[in-house]
């Protein structure tokens, strides 16, 4: 059906891919700002100034939007949570990992804040997340072992496994933790509050840093403070 401007002119139909992208970007903004549970497809349609029926043409329900946003989040994490190719890790790689982690956690913070609710509401997403978590727990172990092999950290195999697991728990739970300890007077958790989660990771690692890497490690703590 053609669309008309207030003066009766036929408006061009936007490409499907462009409208779909608008929906995804608006959803991400509203989910992050208000929480996924507070945003309905009617809210999204009103925000985008389109009819609910037009929204359903691109996404049949909110779960499909969440699934697409999770796929993008997963792709970003896949892109950086791995060992560098063709060389050993360096202390500067630690900064790169933390900055990339902070960025993706902030950009998709609703996933961490509302994760339990979303997984309980969507079995397919829950299975995808389980596979994602298992894969990247192994990735974290490989990366920490890489820092051990490079002489930056000193740990046993069991300590590597424990540190990787604890790091995963801290980072995936940090946004939810902030929401439980902040009040309205504190305001909504911001990126600086999220950065404190990185500080917790550094605190977990501190006891395993070798003397040769201690100075550079302290520099990283100062930069990310």
TrEMBL record:
| Residue ranges: DNA binding | 40-59
Signal peptide residues on this chain, from the entry's feature table: none
Which UniProt keywords are present, listed alphabetically?
Answer: DNA-binding
> What region holds the HTH tetR-type domain?
17-77
Gene Ontology MF term list: DNA binding
Known Gene3D superfamilies for this protein? Tetracycline Repressor, domain 2 (1.10.357.10)
Q: Which InterPro entries match?
A: Homeodomain-like_sf, HTH-type_Tx_Regulator, HTH_TetR, TetR
What is the protein's name according to its record? TetR/AcrR family transcriptional regulator
Lineage in the entry? Answer: Bacteria, Pseudomonadati, Pseudomonadota, Gammaproteobacteria, Pseudomonadales
């Amino acid at each position: 059906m053609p669309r008309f401007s207030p003066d009766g002119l036929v408006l061009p139909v936007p490409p499907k891919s462009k409208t779909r992208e608008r929906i995804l970007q608006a959803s991400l903004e509203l989910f992050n700002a208000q929480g996924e549970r507070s945003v309905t497809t009617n809210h999204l349609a009103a925000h985008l100034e389109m009819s609910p029926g037009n929204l359903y043409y691109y996404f049949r329900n909110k779960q499909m939007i969440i699934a697409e946003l999770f796929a993008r989040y997963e792709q970003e994490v896949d892109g950086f949570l791995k060992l560098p190719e063709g060389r050993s890790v360096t202390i500067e790689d630690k900064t790169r990992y933390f900055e990339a982690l902070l960025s993706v956690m902030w950009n998709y913070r609703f996933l961490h804040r509302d994760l339990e609710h979303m997984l309980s509401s969507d079995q397919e997403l829950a299975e995808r997340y389980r596979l994602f978590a298992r894969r990247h727990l192994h990735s974290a172990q490989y990366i920490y072992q890489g820092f051990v092999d490079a002489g930056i950290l000193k740990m046993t195999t069991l300590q590597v496994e424990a540190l990787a697991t604890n790091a995963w728990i801290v980072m995936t739970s940090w946004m939810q933790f902030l929401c439980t300890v902040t009040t309205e007077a504190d305001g909504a958790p911001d990126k600086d509050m999220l950065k404190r989660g990185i500080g917790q990771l550094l605190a977990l690692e501190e006891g395993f840093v070798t003397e040769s890497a201690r100075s550079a490690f302290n520099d990283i703590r100062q930069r990310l403070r």
